[in-house]
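Summary for the funding panel

The consortium committed to producing paired sequence-structure records for every protein in the target list. Below we show the first two records in order, beginning with the earlier of the two.
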Amino acid sequence: MFSGGVVTGPLLIGIFILAIAVLLVLIIKFKLNAFVALLVTAFGTGVLVNMPLPDVAKTVTDGFGGTLGSIGMVTGLGVMLGKFMFESGGIESISNKILKAFGEKRSPIAVSLSGFITGIPVFGDVVYIMFAPMLRVLSKKTGISMVNFACAISVATTCTFALVLPTAPPLAVAGELGIEIGIFFFYALISAFVGMIFGGIVYGAFLNKQDHKRNHFYTFEDLEVEEAALNTADNRQKMGAGKALSILLVPIILILLGSFVPLAVGEDAAITPIVKFLGDKNFAMMAGVIYAALISRKYLRQSITDIMTEAADQVGLILLITGAGGAFGKILQATGIADYVAGSLSQFSIPILVLCFLIAQIIRCAQGSTTVALMTTAAIMSSTIATSGVSPILCAIAICAGGIGLSLPNDSGFWAISRFFKISVTDTIRGWTLGGFVAGIAILIFVSILSLFQGFLPGLMM
């Protein structure tokens, strides 16, 4: 850690607040790209604390490179995997299968489950684009509030985006905290499911009752065009739901084997090096992409190379923003700001899991990006978590939970939900902003309960 400057104590808090404020102004007021805004803020923070200029440049570079080294490959491969599922029609098959199984009356539950599954390999905006016409038709047909459907799909999708590998935010948190990703995946997946149940399904049903009571419904006067589009949709052969799910399961099973087999047989067993190699996140995702390419080949309208190229184009900006978030986090660590912020908040005797959640939630509200909020919080809390006595796995989940709710109009996802589902700003706040917050609180309560048994549950105190 840098210690040669003269900036200490409360002034560090002031610089931290100023840095966050500058980041917000650059992104919200001046519409500066988040990648550039994060780098400007990172360099500026280092200069303000009197860090030697060569050290500022080196720290930013190391933070950027270290983050991409940890998650760059697997993020790119994850986007490719999702692209194969989408282009082959596998995502649509999964959704239709679930909707058929649950029926129209319980369709919000089916929508939540569809969003939960498709949110793992596919980014949120793509899910919203794909589901919006169908959900608007369902709302008109069933009389179920459109706000309920918007809540169900958006909360479920964001729970998986914020918590379930191989999406960028949980990968970044896992890399920052140095935790075992297979075990993290196992507990994070269960936690995300809990969030979906309470934030997407239970709270969504409450919204539906509210709207029925107030007779608050949308007229769908423009729906004829969308219904016609659905009726004349491409009738080409699509990948079945089972095959599509197997694409997800290949890397997941490999990662879980690499994490849990050594726990069962011991580190000295002959099979341990093999399963650890197969369960390495990069190898597992590569195997998943190759498998996806092979089984989806006959369902594709373009070549495998073209799909991989499009996926690589999509992932570029994501990696830049994530890497810049890592650079900003590294500056906060190296200057001592992270330790001082965490130490100051710890004086209030806030439980570590609640503290992880609160910091992530505050930064999420302030600047809008889930990825940036989780990266920054993980950097601030890493050393405190290491000495807290609470499982780093559970702390990581609490951080990720803080990045789910209270999405405000400074978040691009807020407008994506409002725009694609054609609901008002007020209804977007009701369905998504508050729904996500309910999901985050549910997950925080769940991991707090798990922490009571962390000495008995496998993998939590590694």
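The next record, for a separate protein in the list, is shown here:
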Amino acid sequence: MQNALVLIVEDEMEIAEILQAYLSKEGFRTISAGDGSIGLAHFQRVKPDLVILDVKLPGADGFEILNWIRQRGDTPVIMITALGEDLDKLHALRLGADDYVVKPFNPLEVVARAKAVLRRTMGQTQEPVLRVGTLVVDPSAYQAYLSLPDGTVMLQLTRTEFRLLEHMARSPRRAFERSELVDACLPEGDALDRTVDSHMSNLRRKLAAAGAPELLTGVRGIGYRLGLGNG
């Protein structure tokens, strides 16, 4: 999945640019088209690993493009539909779409769906579970919990809290600067150092309530650390 090429066919430039930014941050290569006919030309030229395809497009609409792709192969396609257009969703699935998202959407959700579709279609196994002391983070299941002697305690986290926890769990005991956590985990418009502090405060409270008050700590003048410094 690493370095997979994603073709984004979306006529709203702002949406296309946001998707490109978030996908690039996760290691994907991207190419975009704002017109259905140009999107088809790109598809034939670059042979992408995944297509993110809007339904309503100038040139050729998303259903035409999806049908054309399905007649020639099984490249995974995620359709973008308008809010409340249930017939569009059904039609997309009947034509062979692998998944769909509804506008307005969170770009982090689109990235998560892209990863899930590529795991299925490229035959990849699930991402390994991350363990830091009693904390267990399962990126594939989007779950985090504490494994304690007397049982398992699930953590009820927001999307951003989970991303922060997952990111830090990949490098336990490392001190993360606030700016790095902003770049890696926070959506645009939410990217302020003090916002990180707010999310971290909530995370520390939830970990403490679940039975791990010392797991997430502040590092003076730097940021935060997940996991005890000596273990």
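Regarding this second record: Residues 63 and 92 are 7 Å apart (CA to CA). DSSP finds eight helices and twelve strands in the chain.
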